Amino acid sequence: MRFSARLTLSSLTLCVLAACSGNAVDAPQPVAIEQDPPGAEIARTIVVTGGTQCALNVRKDRDDPEVFTAAACELKTGAGDAVTAVTLSFAPPCRRYTFNNLIGERYFLDEKALGQRNPACPIESFNAGYGWVLQRG
């Protein structure tokens, strides 16, 4: 009985010392993943405006679209010049994001490549389950 009480007290002491020291590491902030409200009309578009210029447009209902302009853009093509993936690079704190063509004409954010999300970047709140349409022009 005394052994377990000492072990618990020792563990508690170590925990308090670690929390009070300057070496404590803050836990990463959670990122709120977007969820569309029921009945809302949301249009998500990857707009390719030039060879290496792209933007992400999110239009909610009839509002003006929210535009996220990438610093660089890369299209990966497959058979018959069909676009199989789009990779967009953004300035820090954002990074590179790949959207893969998975279903018909829909592109989805590659959540596996995304890893841990950064709350300082609005793109990292995008729901990987929502499809995007590619618009070239």
UniProtKB/TrEMBL annotation:
Top-level taxon: Bacteria
Extent of the signal sequence: 1-18
Keyword Signal: yes
Annotated keywords: Signal
Keyword Signal found: yes
Name by which UniProt lists this protein: Uncharacterized protein
